[in-house]
Amino acid sequence: QKEVEQNSGPLSVPEGAIASLNCTYSDRGSQSFFWYRQYSGKSPELIMSIYSNGDKEDGRFTAQLNKASQYVSLLIRDSQPSDSATYLCAVEAGGYQKVTFGTGTKLQVIP
Amino acid sequence: DVKVTQSSRYLVKRTGEKVFLECVQDMDHENMFWYRQDPGLGLRLIYFSYDVKMKEKGDIPEGYSVSREKKERFSLILESASTNQTSMYLCASSLSGGETQYFGPGTRLLVL
Hints:
Chain A is an all-beta fold and about 110 residues long. Helix content of chain A is about 0%, strand content about 55%. Chain A contains no helices and eleven strands. Chain A has strands at about 5, 10-15, 20-25, 30-40, 45-50, 55-60, 60-65, 70-75, 85-90, 100, 105-110. The radius of gyration of chain A is 13 Å and the shape is globular. Chain B is an all-beta fold and about 110 residues long. Chain B is built from no helices and eleven strands. In chain B, the strands form two sheets. In chain B, strands 2, 4, 5, 6, 9, 10 and 11 form a seven-stranded mixed beta sheet that branches. In chain B, β9 (about 85-95) and β10 form a beta hairpin. The radius of gyration of chain B is 13 Å and the shape is globular. The interface of A and B includes residues 8 and 103 of A.
């Protein structure tokens, strides 16, 4: 069983729509959760981090965490073509700070 | 701004060669990481370090070793390169546990 699972996509949404990206994880002891964005040929960069249950909003982005169900999601409102990228979910188990990444979901925003 | 640099963007080596990949960060971060990224497999952790001279195995340490003699520098060593080590190698650093990781530009390694 993969430790962090994401649908590889591609997820296609029209410009202006809401994009919903989901991630599940297996380690119940996980404490820190991250969403990274990776453009083709570039390195990952942080979009959001979330540490407690509930929602966290930053501009057009909202991260949602549900530890009981072991999932974390990222909502992108008013999607723009520039949001087209691969979104990586990352989970930190605590202890000696090992971080596990999902394989990423490719998002395509259609103009 | 945090800056993570890697010694090479592209590298071509022969099977059996010893390969050194270097990573330097300039923000006094405690943690440093080495990943490889392959299509369909995502980012996989090779090794990480949470302090000078300390290292921990990640998910795929076989065929690799690391060195962290100074806080700002973390080296990945391929003792005897093999074709299945052809990949994109990404270095990252973070201030401490639970913090954002900042990635370097990556080294695309081709082993012939």
